[in-house]
Amino acid sequence: MRGVRSVRDAEIAGRVIHALAEDGRLNVADLVQVGVENGAVQLTGTVDSAEQKEAAREIAARVEGVREVRDSLVVAMSPYADDAELQASAEAEIAEAPGLSLKDVGVEVDDGIATLVGRVPDAAREQEAEAVAGEVKGVKEVVSDLLVGQARRDEVIEIVDDATLRSEVAGALADRGIVVFDDATFVADGVVHLRGHVFSQRDAREAERLARAIPGVQSVRDELVAEEEIPSRSPDEELAARVMDALGRNPEANPTYVKALAFGGDVYLVGQVDSIEQQIASIEAARRVPGVRRVLSGVVISDRTSVASDDKGTVATRRFQRRRLGPLSERQFRRRR
Hints:
- By secondary structure, this protein is an alpha/beta fold.
- It folds into four domains: 7-75, Histidine-containing Protein, Chain: A (2-Layer Sandwich); 83-148, 2-Layer Sandwich (Histidine-containing Protein, Chain: A); 162-229, Histidine-containing Protein, Chain: A (2-Layer Sandwich); 235-336, Histidine-containing Protein, Chain: A (2-Layer Sandwich).
- It is built from eleven helices and 13 strands.
- β2, α3 (50-62) and β3 (68-75) form a beta-alpha-beta unit.
- α4 packs across α5.
- The chain is elongated, with a radius of gyration of 30 Å.
- The termini are far apart.
């Protein structure tokens, strides 16, 4: 108890230490030191959060005999929190804060610096958002790019629901030829969570960029895993990945709802397309991939109105489907081989 100048100060210091320990919200023995001089309490040391720092001040101030509380406590920064974790924490705090919403205020974190984006009605809300983000442990600095004030009469703010944003994200990725395997992407309160597997880190970065560019998206959390980062992959998985890449690069095919499975050089296409033309284009694109021995298809046509009007071609295609491309389960496919 450094700083104790009298028996009276020593008693006060003891009461403060006891009160802090009894409260249980912070570790007094290891991290917080209490000094008292003429009834003025000096708190020093390290705590885990801004909440603990404020709690220590309040507890000390309530102790009998304390005339003043001086706070030199430091909030520790976690060395393990990366930008994505900090962003997730800041978004969670904003979502729970009264008067704030992720639909209005978004957060982007780069090298520990949190940038606030969006619009708030007044300066008080901006200050509240800054305070909330600044309390996240590990955030070094908060920068506000918020628009403050009501929209001009000639300014139209379109409110986009999460389902629409999810559809626009999927469309943007498909238009760019980015294939997401095991796609579990979802949107919550304007925040896009990209989940699934892509071919490369380049695709992952491009997917994040495309999602951020969609109007109405507050922020993007990139949780995509690049296939190139997976150390072990069987030859069949490699062949299936090459087929999916070929489908994604073929403008006449629709790889968004088509997946390829490979077994010993045989490729089985499953999913659905909008037309017979897309079905045939998918099959032909798969056939041209080196290493493909045979292509079987379980692809279903979801929109019959887009079928070509050539009756002869349509009949021929349906015969081809019945002979070669009838829908098969994976077990049936293996049995047929």
